[in-house]
């Protein structure tokens, strides 16, 4: 990580090779997760200091957060992700959330797969990676891209730049918030459409959350291979989550199950177990018109 001590201020002393997340609470207390859950660091920030550090971090990453736009995020040097919420959105005091990358790259061999067949399933066809926050979804996605042949062109689309891959034939696109005058907005939906003009063999979305799911599904059903992540705690939750996202994206209810099933070949659910990540692989099926994910 190459963030300077000046940017991090007093938070700099909390960064080690094991640090994954640094977050503040409404009382200004700073919490650190080094892989075993959050613990108090012993450091407390005043509201003034929390705002000064948070705004500075977002602005250093090209983002914006102020009284007129009290929520902001950005990707910083070394693939550090920052999110800041200011009052009155944050009830008691400015809130800072920092997500730090692993100091060393994680390979596919570092993940726990049930067998070689499930591992191979993640490398072929269109893949949806599910899991809760911090479960290893993005890490698995990056490891899969590292294993992709350079003959395949990869286009990565994200809200905030987080995915990193050693795959050389990769293009990265990121959304842009509106300017103070309201213009210049570029969202995920527009980027999905633009990416199809960039000759992608593999279309990657860092996280599916809304309207972009429609164009993504249509792209996959037209022959493109895709990899994306979604928040879901287990295979049992994936079907309902995808159905909800599809409806929000405007896909017709009676066509949702069939379209999504045909678009996604494999579902991989990440679960953090101790210091490692276990991957459970499944597939989408339709049961009485309902989209479900079942283990394979």
From TrEMBL:
Residues 94-264 form the Bacterial type II secretion system protein E domain. It holds the Pfam family T2SSE. SUPFAM superfamilies: P-loop containing nucleoside triphosphate hydrolases. GO terms for molecular function: ATP hydrolysis activity. Belongs to the GSP E family. This is Unannotated protein.
């Amino acid at each position: 990580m190459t963030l300077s001590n000046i940017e991090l201020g007093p938070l700099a002393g909390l960064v080690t090779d094991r640090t994954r997340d640094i977050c503040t609470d409404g009382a200004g207390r700073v919490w650190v997760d080094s892989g075993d859950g959050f613990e108090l660091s012993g450091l407390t920030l005043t509201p003034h200091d929390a705002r000064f550090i948070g705004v500075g971090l977002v602005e250093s990453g090209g983002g914006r957060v102020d009284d007129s736009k009290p929520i902001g995020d950005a990707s910083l040097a070394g693939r550090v992700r920052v999110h800041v919420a200011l009052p009155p959105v944050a009830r008691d005091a400015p809130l800072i959330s920092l997500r730090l990358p692993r100091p060393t790259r994680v390979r596919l061999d570092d993940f726990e797969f049930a067998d070689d067949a499930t591992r191979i399933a993640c490398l072929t066809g269109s893949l949806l990676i599910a899991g809760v926050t911090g479960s290893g979804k993005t890490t698995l996605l990056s490891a899969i891209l590292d294993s992709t042949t350079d003959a395949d062109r990869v286009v990565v689309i994200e809200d905030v730049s987080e995915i990193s891959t050693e795959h050389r034939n990769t293009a990265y696109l990121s959304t842009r918030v509106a300017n103070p005058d309201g213009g210049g907005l570029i969202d995920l939906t527009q980027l999905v459409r633009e990416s199809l003009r960039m000759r992608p063999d593999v279309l990657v979305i860092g996280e599916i959350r809304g309207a972009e799911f429609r164009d993504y599904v249509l792209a996959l059903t037209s022959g493109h291979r895709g990899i994306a992540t979604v928040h879901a705690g287990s295979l049992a939750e994936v079907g309902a989550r995808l159905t909800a996202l599809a409806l929000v994206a405007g896909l017709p209810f009676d066509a949702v199950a069939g379209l999504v099933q045909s678009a996604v070949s494999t579902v991989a659910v990440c679960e953090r177990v101790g210091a490692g990540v276990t991957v459970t692989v499944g597939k989408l099926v339709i049961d009485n018109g309902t989209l479900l994910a079942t283990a394979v």
